[in-house]
Amino acid sequence: xxxxxxxxxxxxxxxxxxxxxxxxxxxxxxxxxxxxxxxxxxxxxxxxxxxxxxxxxxxxxxxxxxxxxxxxxxxxxxxxxxxxxxxxxxxxxxxxxxxxxxxxxxxxxxxxxxxxxxxxxxxxxxxxxxxxxxxxxxxxxxxxxxxxxxxxxxxxxxxxxxxxxxxxxxxxxxxxxxxxxxxxxxxxxxxxxxxxxxxxxxxxxxxxxxxxxxxxxxxxxxxxxxxxxxxxxxxxxxxxxxxxxxxxxxxxxxxxxxxxxxxxxxxxxxxxxxxxxxxxxxxxxxxxxxxxxxxxxxxxxxxxxxxxxxx
Length: 311
Fold this sequence. Notes:
The protein is α/β, with parallel strands linked by helices. It has helices spanning about 5-15, 45-65, 80-85, 105-125, 130-150, 170-180, 210-310; strands at about 15-20, 30-35, 40, 70, 90-95, 160-165, 185-190, 200. Helix 1 crosses helix 7, helix 2 (about 45-65) runs parallel beside helix 7 and helix 4 (about 105-125) crosses helix 5.
């Protein structure tokens, strides 16, 4: 049976190398293929299987519009975490885990707002109107906050998922995620506890190429989920626009019906008024005719009387 392309890339990146025998965690036994020169070798077939499960989960999370927090504070992997997290527009922690970042997020959110306000003030040139000593103090505050909050500016609420490189090193992050029941995806080496992680990915968490391969694979799944999310949103917006158009057409039809009804009512009123006018005219003409007839009769009587007198 030949090796798949993904396993070949993992071998090239050194994903299969674990820790020394004395540093291993017995709970990682099921992910270990063997041992060579006192170093444990990770089973890459199981790594592929766990990686696919993690990718599917992160894809669904991104598809639903969720945020994934990337955490990796080892010196050699900081640029990798920063680059790949920015490529998928996700928040990250690459310098130091701030205590209470998840469990005390309301306070952290205020600090983030303050950090963004200071950056905006400096960009807008408001520091030019402040005394120099105050400017020095604010710049020092910004430089300290850069280390803690520069990667969290897009984090508006608690993340829907956390991805960690080396959960043994990031104990505070793992503890806070478990306390808040936030799903945890992690690249774990042979010295970590896989039971602390919802989606463990066994692999080398020290080599740059190994970390870059795993994280880039996860980022591809996140990008696919984001694209699906945007297409769903566009379809929903187009459907809402169609519904609003149908509603407007219905309103126009109702308006036309009411106008027609109003016109028909006006016509009925006009007809009734005309009929009433004709009746009144007829009624007015009848007494005039009766008067003429009475006058003619009177004249005839007068003429008869005159003739009789003459006789």
